[in-house]
Amino acid sequence: MTHSSIFIYCDDPSHSRRQAVTNFKAEPDGRWNEHYASTAAQGRRESGQTIGANDSPLEARELSRRGLREVIEAEGPFRSRYRLECRRCKRRPVIAREEPLFAVLTRLTDTGLFEVSLILLAATLQRQSEATRADPEPGLG
Ligand SMILES: [Zn+2]
């Protein structure tokens, strides 16, 4: 199993060079973990937000107070939503649930792309959601 990672950056024309946004690293179970792009960003909370079964965000302190297992037992499996944003220009933030985001990261790295701009990431997420909504059986339209 290869351990891929992908670097996400902002290439907004207002920057003289591209700005690091964040990194994701593939885990053996197919999930992706966020790793900060620069040491300057350490100590900042992750882009991901944990969403409970009722779609409400769970506070990190609630998670640590109640404990992960108790929260899962009470609220069912939860997932994360990510808001990926350039800290410098804050333009074009990418907001995605972990399922489509992880699927896109896997697809990009499968094709050999290990660096992606926020713009390309947003476009790829958009294409994927359109493909998911489209009729899965070709030739019926
Ligand atoms: Zn930017």
Q: Can you tell me about this structure?
A:
This protein has 141 residues and is of the alpha+beta class. The chain has a domain at 5-48 and 85-132. 31% of the residues lie in helices and 26% in strands. The protein is built from 4 helices and 8 strands; from the N terminus they run βββββααββαβα. A 4-stranded mixed sheet has the order 3-2-1-8. Strands 5-4-6-7 form a 4-stranded antiparallel sheet. A hairpin with a 5-residue loop joins strand 4 and strand 5. The protein is globular. 16% of the residues are buried. The chain binds zinc ion (ZN).
Describe what is shown at a glance.
By secondary structure, the chain is an alpha+beta fold.
Overall SS class? alpha+beta
Distance between the termini: 40 Å
Instruction: Count all strands and give the number.
Output: 8
* Rough outline: globular
Mean model confidence by pLDDT = 81
Which cofactor or ligand species appear? zinc ion
Q: If helices are DSSP runs of H or I spanning 4 or more residues, what is the number of helices?
A: 4
Q: Report Rg.
A: 17 Å
The major pleated sheet works out as:
4 strands, mixed
Cross-sheet strand order for the largest sheet: 3-2-1-8
Q: Would you list the SSEs in sequence order as H and E?
A: EEEEEHHEEHEH
Uncertain runs are none
Work out the helicity level: 25-40%
- Classify the beta-strand content into a percent band: 25-35%
